[in-house]
Amino acid sequence: MNVDDVSGDPRLVVTGGFRSVGHYTVIGHPIVHSMSPTLHNAWFAAKGLAFSYVALDIPPDELVLRAPALPFEYAGVNVTIPHKRAVLGYVDAVDPNAEAAGAANLLYRDRNTKAWTAGNTDGDGFVAGFEEALGEPVTGRDVLILGAGGAARAVAAALVKHRAASITIGNRTQQTAVELAGRVGANQALELSANLIARCDRVPDLVINTLPAAAEPFLATLDVSGLPDHAIVADINYHVRTPALLAHAEDAGLFTLDGRGMFLWQAALSFDTWLGELPDLDVGRQILGM
Question: What pTM value is reported for the model?
Answer without folding.
Answer: 0.90
